[in-house]
Design brief:
Helix 1 (11-22) links the parallel strand 1 and strand 2. Helix 7 (142-152) packs across helix 10. It is built from 10 helices and 6 strands. The radius of gyration is 18 Å and the shape is elongated. Helix content is 52%, strand content 14%. The protein has 200 residues and is of the alpha/beta class.
Length: 200
């Protein structure tokens, strides 16, 4: 059962989301919150698998909440559900460590699918926002992108070093640099971010 915390400051929308998710098999809404600070308190109390967050919240915005959850409760993954469709918001959400970004125009089936994918360790970006990501220039050097691409294919650092005729230290430095530039928490996260942006 996927435990979900619904965080939305508009009571009608929050009630609608809770009712919608209550009909989904394998998903259980374990709590609700109307502002960012309450969301953090409820997350600590309930230990949900997914925090469904609006960006525009009183107290602390959803991006701040996502960042704190990523740092303090990494097992609780954040999925943004917002009406804000600007690329800048998406960039900030990903940099904060959120696992997903979905627009409120999404169909109910898209929302439940996104929750399942995020809970399973995946990353979700609304299809309507992917072009905005791809239009950004890559922060990675060619070497970093190549090394990350080989990592995505399943190659280990030693194999990459042998394939590219590099030292193991150089490969590790490239991967570490890529993780930092992409504001990723892990190497797997860095691969997902780069793939979502179309940089690999």
């Amino acid at each position: 059962m996927i435990k979900v915390l619904v965080v939305e400051d508009h009571a009608v929308v929050r009630a609608g989301l809770t009712a919608l998710l209550a009909r989904e098999i394998g998903i259980q809404v374990v709590g609700e919150a109307a502002d960012g600070r309450d969301a953090l308190d409820e997350a600590r109390r309930l230990c949900p698998d997914v925090a469904l967050l609006d960006i525009d919240l009183p107290g602390a915005d959803g991006i701040t909440v996502a960042g704190e959850l990523a740092e303090r409760m990494p097992d609780c993954r954040s999925l943004m559900l917002t009406a804000l469709d600007r690329p800048g918001h998406l960039e900030r959400v990903l940099a904060a460590g959120a696992a997903g970004f979905l627009l409120k125009t999404a169909a109910p089936a898209e929302l439940s699918d996104a929750i399942r994918r995020v809970a399973g360790g995946g990353r979700v970006i609304d299809p309507r926002m992917r072009d905005a990501l791809r239009s950004r220039p890559s922060p990675l050097t060619d070497g970093e992108a190549e090394t990350l691409r080989l990592t995505a294919s399943g190659a280990h650092a030693r194999e990459i070093a042998a394939d590219l005729f590099l030292s193991l230290g150089t490969v590790r430095n490239r991967l570490s640099s890529a993780v930092g530039k992409l504001h990723a928490r892990t190497l797997v996260d860095a691969v997902r971010i780069a793939e979502d942006h179309g940089w690999l």
